[in-house]
Amino acid sequence: MPTLTYRDALNQALREEMARDADVFLMGEEVGVYQGAYKVSRGLLEEFGPNRVVDTPITELGFAGVGIGAAMVGLKPVIEFMTWNFALLAIDQIVNSAAKLRYMSGGQVPMQIVFRGPCGAALQLAAQHSQNFESMYANIPGLKVVIPATPADAKGLLKAAIRDPDPVVFMEGEMLYNIKGEVPEGEHVVPIGVAEVKRAGDHVTIVCWGKTVALALKAADQLAAEEISVEVVDLRTIRPLDVATVLASVRKTHRAVVAEEGWYFAGVGAQVVDEIQSQAFDELDAPVVRVTSADVPMPYNKHLEKAAKVSVERIAAAVKKVLYLD
After folding, report:
1. Do 32 and 173 touch, CB atoms closer than 8 A?
2. CA atoms of 314 and 193, how far apart (whole Å)
3. Which has the closest alpha carbon to 158: 129, 191, 128?
4. Distance CA 51, CA 48 (A)
5. Nearest-10 Cα torsion for 14, 232, 179, 291
6. β-pairing, 237-239 with 144-146?
7. Strands 230-234, 204-208: parallel, antiparallel or unpaired by DSSP?
8. Residues forming the active site
9. Per-residue confidence band for 326, with pLDDT thresholds at 50, 70 and 90
């Protein structure tokens, strides 16, 4: 099985879906001549031409609306935002048009569209460029929210998102583009709404997604040296949420930690905790503990930024807390 970077896995998914279906096209800032701000669209303009790889002005509200209009007449746009921070400028189109038109028309108006781009903190990009918005979009009925953590899932979930009849918010970890992993060739599609147990364990469940998956796996490796067996569940999709896989793991381990890159207040982790306590309360041997980024705008200072982010050490400490070992 070939080893690819996360960005190349996304590129492969785009290329395969554009070759498979002539209605699929890519549009966004610098996706064509520059080949993408993060080189995800490398080579696509040369292969598919300017009618299907469309460079846009710096106007997120405008090109998001053009994409929605294209979806309404049966095309299948993939709209790239240079970062989800910039997508705030297009939120009216995403929330009030894309999320609602298929429902409000009783299914008469198609809305097969993917909004994609990087999210989360990178390195010293400061508060306005280091935000996680999955909880905000997951709060909107009509949108599906997908956050792959590995190259294989990046490819498989992007292919599924492009084929899905509903609008999909597809968030790529900004610090994940260079990570490598084995990626199946050809027809590799990961179903939306299905979590995956990335590591089996017996003592504690860590529920995570996106960038925190790698951190949780590293924490599990470290804790294994102390004979603590950790199960790592990667949600992969935030909405729809695969509650069944989470509950099955918690009923096995009887303890849970939720690790997310987003903020604490009203975060996705709060929803996960509610699902656990409302459906598996009697299975818990300890309260569920959440690990999040600090509930502040992301600092620019390197040391403060590091302190604000989720870390392997904070996840490991949370695991020990639910085991009453702290």
Report:
1. no
2. 28
3. 191
4. 8
5. 100
6. antiparallel
7. parallel
8. 60, 129
9. confident
